[in-house]
Specification:
- It is a single chain.
- The protein is an alpha+beta fold.
- The chain has one domain.
- It is built from four helices and five strands.
- The strands form two sheets. The protein has a three-stranded antiparallel β-sheet with strand order 1-3-2, with no helix packed on it. The chain has a two-stranded antiparallel ribbon with strand order 4-5.
- It is globular and about 40 Å long.
Length: 107
């Protein structure tokens, strides 16, 4: 291996969001949105206000209310909030979510 080549910081198999869904399940307690986020107007039944902040409602089991009940598919994927759009598959927050739900072993 050449000195300029990076070795693997941490091996994760190819991730498929539809098989995982950790970020939309119980890994996080809230998906906060802004008052200008389009999801607020497009899907008002999914939005709630708590402590002066807007967020996507949670369903039983602390799952995001936008998930279809029998899987990890997002019903509002084309209109998902900004924080969901910025969530990078395989990135640090993804690995953290996977650790929290037991899909990835912590280092």
């Amino acid at each position: 291996m050449a000195a300029s080549e990076r070795c693997c910081d941490r091996f994760e198999p190819e991730l498929d969001c539809l098989d995982c869904g950790a970020c939309c399940r119980e890994a996080f307690d809230a998906v906060e949105i802004t008052r200008r986020d389009p999801v607020r107007g497009l899907h008002p039944s999914l939005v709630e206000e708590a402590d002066g902040r807007l967020r996507i409602r949670r369903a039983p089991g602390n799952r995001c209310a936008a998930l279809v009940p029998d899987g990890y598919e997002c019903r509002i994927y084309p209109d998902r909030p900004r924080c969901c759009r910025d969530f990078e598959r395989g990135g640090p927050n993804c690995v953290f979510a996977r650790e929290r739900v037991g899909l990835t072993q912590p280092w």
